[in-house]
Amino acid sequence: MTILVSSSATKQQLRRIVETLKRSGWDPFVVNEPTTRIVGMNNSRSPLTAPPLEDLPGVEKVVHSSTQFPLASRECHPESTVVDVDGVKVGGQEFVVIAGPCAVENEDVLLETARLVRKGGAKILRGGAFKPRTSPYAFQGLGKQGLKLLARAREETGLKICTEVMDTADIGLVAEYADILQIGSRNMANYALLRKIGRTKKPVLLKRGMSAKVSEFLLAAEYVLSNGNPNVILCERGIVGFDVATRNILDLACVPVVKSLSHLPILIDPSHGTGYRQYIAPLSKAALAVGGDGLLIEVHPRPESAWCDGQQSMGTDQFATLMKELATLAVPLGRTIDV
Ligand code: PEP
Ligand code: MN
Fold it and tell me: For the chain, what percent of residues have pLDDT higher than 70?
């Protein structure tokens, strides 16, 4: 169950609600952002009856629900969340596109990409400075130097920056430069990372683990939310399958499922989702049609010479054409794309 605490509640009233829950066998978790809520979890092996909390001073509303992820659930939070990325609203009427290279390579390529994706209609620039690579011998990213280049690209183009953080020790550093902290697929279940990012207020792009169920994906979001960071954007990036015709299986069916279960915005990544640039455009259109809130696309001015993931990166002209097609398609779907 989730207890919404009134904004005028005193510390004493809060303590009394917590104590009442404990006495009835419930485990209370207090979350202060964006408003104070107390999540009461039944972690005992037997069913519990909820104490009469509605009449306690300081209680505004009690939502009785057995969901495992009350903070991420639509049941406890019916209105859709819009995450504000320094002025760019993700989860509202606008279909927001994040574009850029898989990895930050050097200043020239990054700035060239940034200028062209902005011209095409992207609002946020992506680019990994810390790269989770399958091989320890593959390019691991430019680290801090890459973050500085991203900041330079933001300064020049006004694009917001989305970049991955892999290590709890780097959160402070990456947060100094990024507008969105990306949690990659491989780290979706890195609970230490989720907890620590949850203690920041930075918007988070949480990618679905490649073999994660929707419930595990939403529980990962719950880790961030329950640690006090309400700014979670989900990202479907494909799940493992048996067929090598595509790199992953882009699970577009999860979009309406997530929308019904959760109030959080969800983006779709057709680059990692398919592994091939020729499938990005059709799946981007499908992502818009199925109710996604935006896209994360790998774009490179010369994809054939990209340091990583060139095969699944669009060229900048191809990207601009796709954005125009998406803008037309968005109209009957009630979304806007500013190209
Ligand atoms: C990426 O976005 O570059 C990336 C590594 O994605 P994922 O975590 O989905 O594999
Ligand atoms: Mn990539």
Answer: 100
